[in-house]
Amino acid sequence: MKQNIFEILKFRPYLFFVVSTLFSNIGTGMQVIANSWLILDISGQVSSIAIFLMCYTLPGIFLSPLTGIIVDKIDRRWLAISMDIYRGLILLTIFVLWHLGSLLTWHLYLMGILIAIGDQIYSPAAAAMIREVVKKDMLLSANASTSIAMQVGALIGAGFAGLIIAVSSAIDIMWINALSFVVSSFLLNFVRKGYKSPSTNISKVKGYKKYFSQLTDGIRYIVDNTSIIPMYILIFCITATVRTINVLLAPFAKDVLAVGSVGFGYIDASFALGAILGGLLLPNIYNKFNFNKTVVLLMGMLSCGLIGFSLSNKLIIAMLFFFLIGASVNVKIVCLTLVQQIVSLDYQGRVHSTFNAIFSVLTFGLYFLMGYLGDLISLRWLYSFQGIIVIVVVILVLNSKSVCVKAVKNEKKLPV
């Protein structure tokens, strides 16, 4: 019997995880807006937002291989809890610096680096933890529910952020987000009990050679299982698209649409609403179509949303196209679910982090390019360019002769 997408919420360990995700993303939804407005207020330059995001990307470039080994070696629940507390302390430090009158732009850049270190450990740990507590045939429902929780949190956060900035200051969002991390860490305690070492396949080599042995084990796993590569290419395309349009959204709302912080919040909230609806419909869409058709449909929607948004001249039109973008990015969930099913649980941290290191280098260059072009070329053209890139990537991936595409075509449909 097919399951409803909310059937997974009856599973108590996962319920605690998804509620934890909801609370942390309420804070994160506010944080995204606060970062942009704080940087613009202090520096007054669009390029400063891109620099901040480049700083955020740096830990992914240099630390991803190490974090993958850590996630495959240390209890993933403990790692997630520790990173929640760590990120909360960083945000409280920024809040204190502001009230001491000492906050400078470089402090925000440093915050981006330090928060990113926590994110680099938390994200693969949380993804692997879901795989630990949820059965394979429930993964799509679990990932879709997690995505919905993230977007509901982002929606609530965006709404509160616009209100807080309007009546108070963006800096107050720092301590509120820190509190959300504390609540999240508390809830993660109940996902399961005890300490659980994830991997039985960690190399027995001692000393510094042990690190390289474990790293090469992860790379060798990818080489032996090339079927996952096209799915990671799609994941990167979607992730990079969302991140780069966020680089441009604050100046687009402020300078092109002239809707201010409140309008910025409305547009960001539209994305969250679209993602929530898309997450609810995704399992049914995937079961009705195969992998290729689902990718073409949703990536086509993403491209249309980006190009349509670039042509928007009114707030309501911009919100509608950003809603479409939000609904379409859920194709990432399908790719992530299949990766979780295919990749051995012992290697998920290293595989995820290896790809993340590659993607971080590419994203760093993309942020640099967007930051440079953001002050030289019309923001409308940059959004349109993103839409074109999406179409090109889909064509290249789906025309690939990779084992991945063939394997996905024969993949059994997942329960909803």
Describe the secondary-structure layout.
Layout lengths: L11 H32 L2 H26 L4 H24 L5 H29 L5 H29 L4 H17 L19 H17 L4 H28 L3 H29 L2 H20 L4 H14 L2 H12 L5 H27 L4 H20 L4 H7 L7
Helix pairs in contact: 1-2, 1-4, 1-5, 1-6, 2-4, 2-13, 3-4, 3-6, 4-13, 5-9, 5-12, 8-9, 8-12, 8-13, 8-14, 9-11, 10-11, 10-14
Average of pLDDT: 80
Counting DSSP E segments of at least 2 residues, the number of strands comes to: 0
Span between termini = 10 Å
Helix content: over 70%
CATH class: Mainly Alpha
Instruction: Tell me which CATH architecture applies here.
Output: Up-down Bundle
By helix and strand content, what is the structural category? Answer: mainly alpha
In total, the number of domains comes to 1
CATH-assigned fold name: Growth Hormone, Chain: A
Q: State the helix count.
A: 15
Q: Give the DSSP E fraction (strand runs of 2 or more residues).
A: under 5%
Low-confidence stretches: 403-416
User: How would you sum up the major sheet?
Assistant: none
Principal-axis shape: globular
Radius of gyration, rounded?
A: 20 Å
Q: Provide the CATH superfamily.
A: MFS general substrate transporter like domains
Order of helices and strands: HHHHHHHHHHHHHHH
Architecture overview:
- The protein is mostly helical and 416 residues long.
- The protein has one domain: Growth Hormone, Chain: A.
- Helix content is 80%, strand content 0%.
- The chain has 15 helices and no strands.
- Helix 1 runs antiparallel to helix 6 and helix 3 runs antiparallel to helix 6.
